[in-house]
Every structure is written in C-alpha cells, then in structure tokens.
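Ticket #4471: structure export looks truncated?
Reporter: QA, pipeline team
Priority: medium

Steps to reproduce: submit the single chain below to the structure queue and open the exported record.
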Amino acid sequence: MHGLPLLSMLLLVPAVGAALVWVAPRTGWARAIALASASTGLAAAVAVTAAFDANEPGFQLVEKHAWLPSLNAHYLVGIDGISVLFLPAAALLFTGVVLASWNSVHLLPRLYYSLLLLLEAAILGVLCALDMVLFILFWELTLVPFYFLVSLWGIGPNRRQAATKYTLVMLAGGIPLLFALLVLAFNHAAASNAGLPEGLAFDLPTLLAAPLSRGTQYAVFLLLLAGFGVKVPIFPLHTWLPVMAMEGPAAITALLVGMKLGAYGLIRFALPLAPAAAQEMHWLLASLGTVGVLYGALAALAQTNLRSMLAYASLSHVGLVVLGLASLDLQGLEGAVMQLLNFTVSAGGLFLLTSFLFHRSGSTDVLSLGGAARSMPLLASAFLLCGLAGMGLPGTSGFPADFLILLSALKTHTGAGIAALVGMVVGAAYFLGLYRRAFFGPVAHAHIAEAEDLRRRELLVALACGLVILAVGFFPSVVLDVIRPSAEALLARLPAAVR
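Actual output as written to the record:
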C-alpha cells in the first residue's frame, strides 16, 4: 500500500470528478457524481492517514518528479504530523458542502459542482505541496473557483464586488509570497556556488537543510507573514472576510472560514524557514494575535446577523492561533494546529448549518428569526454544539486546543494571555446572546413556525460534525500524538538558547 502514489491519487479524485460532472446527462447525475467524488476523496484521505506513521517526525509518502527542469522545480508532495490530519478534515468539509448544496443550486449546477471539486483539489494540493513553486500554483488556483462560486451563486446584492475584492486582495497577498520564494531560491544559489539555474532550490526539504543568515531570515519571515496574513486573516487585513460572509453562499463561506490556509502557511513555511527571525519577532506575532482576539470578539458582540457574527468570531479565534504560534513552544504549537483542525469542523459546521437556516427562512438576521428551536430542534441543537466547540467548552474539540494555547500564552506572554481570556469571555457572550435571540423566545414569523427541520442529508452533515467534535474533545491524545513528533522537530530548529 505504501508503494502506491496515495497523495497523487488523493489530488486526482476531485479533479477527475470535476471532469465527469460535465458529462452527466442530468442535474441529478451531476450532484450524484459530485457527492461520489467528494466521498471517494474522503476515503482516500482516510487511507493516507492510515498509511501515515505517527512516530516519524519527517515527511512521509513523498512523491517527487521533474516538473520545470529549467527552474529546478519539481512536483513534490508529502505530509508530516502537522499536515496529515488536515486532509481528512478538508475532505469531510467538502463532502458536507456538496450535501448542503443538494437542493439549493439551480443555476448552472454542472459548473457549480465542477468548480467546487476543482477547489477541493487545489486546497488539498496546498496541504500536500513541498515545492514552493507548486505550493504557490495551488495557492493561486484556489482563487478562480472562489471568485465564480461567490459571484454567480452568492446570496447578497453586492456578491460580484465582494468576489472581486477578495480576488484582488488575495492576488496582492501573493506578491510578498513570490518575493519570499525568490529570496529563498537565489540565496540558495549564492550559497551553493552552483550558479543559475542549477543552484536554484524551491523544495522545502532542501531549503530547510540550508540555514539562512539573520538578515535574510528577517526578510523571508516578514514577507511570508504579510502574504499569509492576508489569508489568515490578521487585523487589519481582514476586511474581505465579513463582506464575503454576507455576500457569498453560506456553504462556500464555510470553506473560507473552516480552511485557515494562511495560518497553515505560517506553520509550514514561515516558522521553520526563518526560526531565528520568528523567535526574535515573537512580540509581533503576540501583538497581532491579541489584537485579533479582542477586535474580533468586540466586533462580533455588536452584530445582529448570524453570518457576520460568525465571520468576526472567526477573526477572534484565528487571533488565538497566532498567539499560540507566538509562544514558540510545544504546547502553543500543538494547540494552534489543533485549533485549526477544530475550525474545519466547528466553524465550517456552523456556516453549513447557517446555510440550512437561510434556505428555510430567507434570512440569517435575528430580527427575521426568533423561536427557531421550536420548529427546528435538531438544527438548533447542532448549531449549539458547534458553537460550544468554538467557545472551547470542556468535552468538545475546542477545549484542548484553547487550553493548550492559553496555558502557553500565559507562560510566555502573560499580558496577551490575560487579554485572550477576556476575549474568550466576550466570545461566550456574543455567541450565546445571538443564539438565544435567534433560536429561543416566541415565534414571531410564520415562515419560522412552518419551517422544516433537518432533512436526512443535512442531518448526516450535522451528525458527522458532532461526532468529530465530541470524539476529539474526549480523546484529544489521538490528535496530539500525531502532531507532537513533527511539532518537536519544527521547534528543534529554533536557536538553542531559546529552546
């Protein structure tokens, strides 16, 4: 089994599914092919996870083939303990999005499902790529499906402007990533005295084996922080997120919020490639994280729409992840990775449930809801469980992640840790307050009183999210045991004086 190109097979499944959708004779067939492709991708991701050796800290299931010989760039994919669990989490979320879109996509369904599957292939490629040219290719390829999915199937009047703003902001964020790539490649060529293009190197294992000077590390770290920070997003680079949440389809926004690729990029590239710069600029990461936690929580507290509240809550939660990275210790790094995995299920699940609610009520504003739990108790219960996971309630997947991050932050950045605690208290206030107003109290609208509860496909999505939340909440060691060896190897790159 280990001899099979499992990662390439994983990337091909949604890409082939996207092509097959176009030959479907009817819309029903297109949906069935999309679901079969997403489900097969989930099975392939589980197979990759099963083939992974959790005791080995290095990259595994590596595949390397010549791709751009003139640039010395390769098709190079592989996984380690930091990236492996994101694969089944992403595949599960995409399967949920297909199910959530089952009865709501009437305009150009073949195009919708093919774009969705292409987006899955690109995101899985981002998670597997170990060559930086290949990584940036997959990174930029995510923009095309997102643009059309929001501009064509968005639910807001300004959806095209929102999609355009998102695309332009992400393209601007790609510029510092490209500069960082060039700095790394030309630095390696100069250090190896091999000349161009023979001395160029873009693959991560080679770059990790060639230490950078302190000045080069500063340049690389700041460029990567700026490029990935747009996608995280960190304050004040976040303005695209609330707009996309309000204008785009809630099911597609689940992918934007659930898959924090920017934070993943910081862990995969910024910290290991520029460890000394990351260590010396820990105060910058801690400051950005703290501001994000507090600003996101306070902004969410002022919202009256579930979608905008969840968008600002996402900003607050990812600020906590950045704060965990600022600690540069094992607890903070484990907590950050675990929190990113929790986002995929809890935050992604919340937006999927919000899409179910929108298609029943036509709105996610609390003024148009009220008493929804009376007619939709299953939806209300699933929404509460995902929200409690976001709050870090004991017994949910958010608790071990929040606990590790806060413990690490209080130890390394006490003031920031206390501020994060305040942000979490505010977080409980904004979620529970808006949840009470939306789901409890008297039923004020006829469309809420007559609304149908979760259908079987929707209930399957809710059950899958709920089971993962509870399983990880009660058995966090299953996840932490996978993350720890690779996290320890990453931290071992820090200067010895600060480890």
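Status: closed, not a bug. The export was complete when the record was re-opened. Leaving a note from the reviewer for reference: The radius of gyration is 22 Å.
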